[in-house]
Design a protein that fits this description.
The chain has about 170 residues and is an alpha+beta fold. It has helices at about 1-20, 30-40, 75-85, 95-105, 125-140, 145-170, and strands at about 45-50, 55-60, 65-70, 115, 120. It has a domain at about 75-170: Nucleotidyltransferase, domain 5, CATH 3.30.420. The protein contains 6 helices and 5 strands, in the order H-H-E-E-E-H-H-E-E-H-H. A 3-stranded antiparallel beta sheet has the order 1-2-3, with helices on both faces. A two-stranded antiparallel sheet has the order 4-5. A hairpin with a 2-residue loop joins strand 4 and strand 5. It is elongated, with a radius of gyration of 20 Å. It is found in: Cytoplasm; Nucleus.
Amino acid sequence: MGAPLAVVAVVARTLAQLWDRPLLGVNHCVGHIEMGRLLARARDPLVLYVSGGNTQVIAFSRRRYRIFGETLDIAVGNCLDRFARVLKISNDPSPGYNIEQMAKRGTKLVELPYVVKGMDVSFSGLLSHVEAVAPRLLATGEATAEDLCFSLQVLGQIPAILGFLGEGVGY
């Protein structure tokens, strides 16, 4: 991804010089949030921003963004990708989609740890736990891959994110 970004940066600098305009840096995350604010006509939103490498609770107030909480280690998207790899779940069309479809067929809850620390959340312990117990659970038939996907959604990431977001509501 470095080469295309470098080319675009050179083009942007060139156009700024040719048209005698300032070149302004824009935070990629803020670009996504601003589009949502515009479309929803939200004035001062509290945002749960979940994207590939980011998981953050962000609020907009007094014309500024403030991060109230975020992942301490790995983002939800990265956790889903690695979880899928551990369970040998296909990437086609995407790991998250496939985990969701498999979770619909799961029936047994397998306890999964997660940590909410103040306004921050951690998913590395959850992932380490799955890496450690999944082979045994699958081999003995104590749980299926579908059960682990179901548990990830019901006991893992969703409660962690809701608790994490709930902390931000009081800002």
